[in-house]
Amino acid sequence: MSTDIRIGIVTVSDRASAGIYADEGGPAIEAYLARALTSPWTPVTRVIPDDRKLIADTLKALADEEGCCLIVTTGGTGPAPRDVTPEATEDVIEKPMPGFGELMRQVSLAKVPTAILSRQTAGIRGKALIVNLPGRPRAIGECLDAVMPAIPYCIDLIEGPYLETDPAVIVAFRPGQKPKT
Ligand SMILES: Nc1ncnc2c1ncn2[C@@H]1O[C@H](COP(=O)(O)OP(=O)(O)OP(=O)(O)O)[C@@H](O)[C@H]1O
Ligand SMILES: Nc1nc2c(c(=O)[nH]1)N[C@H]1C(S)=C(S)[C@@H](COP(=O)(O)O)O[C@H]1N2
User: What is the DSSP code (8-state) at residue 116?
Assistant: First the structure.
């Protein structure tokens, strides 16, 4: 079992990558994970435009070369012509994990009726779990609160590192194990 926990954080936004606005999404994901995880980990961050091949190449590099066990993307999940993050994710994953998108849309719908416009998905590439989040920075906590309890066990199952969480923030669920409270 590796102890070097590396997590990819990818902002997919034409405007943030061009410097038209400051990227708030990547830092919000990093801040969320810094609160939720007690295991030491290293963020590997990227800010890139909405280009299908570039997104796919970035996800591949983070999984295969950077050794990230988890890669969280933000942005480019909607219906606009340039929104291609789910397609790029599907280009590189070996196993789709549709439950992530289903649950995130379900919880998001309680916050905003346009939650159904996000095509956010997730999947496994090698020993990495890739999870898409919508671009709006406030969507990050809304979505991660829902799926984070299942992420450490998912990473156990793909033979990644053991992620410990702060139970005051996220109670990680591992079947057969008493949850740490
Ligand atoms: N990375 C980000 N940092 C800060 N604000 C963001 C970011 N991504 C999106 N937003 C905000 O959320 C709104 C909706 O996101 P939208 O779907 O238009 O952007 P996107 O498709 O993710 O990025 P872009 O249109 O620049 O490629 C934006 O108008 C912006 O205010
Ligand atoms: N939790 C949550 N989900 C959300 C939103 C949000 O504000 N909060 N915005 C929605 C909107 S308005 C859009 S267009 C889609 C896609 O956003 P994206 O293209 O920025 O990824 O995500 C949806 N999902």
Answer: G
Instruction: Give me the helices (H) in 61-161, please.
Output: 85-92, 98-109, 137-147, 151-157
> What DSSP element (H or E) covers 27?
helix 25-36
| 23 in any annotated domain | yes
Ligand nearest to the CA of 137: 1
Q: What is the pLDDT of residues 139-176, one digit of tens each?
A: 999 999 999 999 999 999 999 999 999 999 999 999 98
Domain count, the chain: 1
**Does the residue 178 lie in any domain?**
no
Q: Which domain holds residue 55?
A: 6-157
Q: Which atom of ligand 2 is nearest to the CA of 108?
A: 1
Task: Find the CATH number of the domain harbouring 63.
Answer: 3.40.980.10
Which ipTM did the prediction report? Answer: 0.94
Query: How many angstroms separate the alpha carbon of residue 28 from the centre of ligand 1?
Result: 13
Radius of gyration over every alpha carbon of the chain, rounded to an integer in angstroms: 15
The ligand that comes nearest to the alpha carbon of residue 138 is: 2
Ligand 1: centre distance to CA 161 (Å): 32
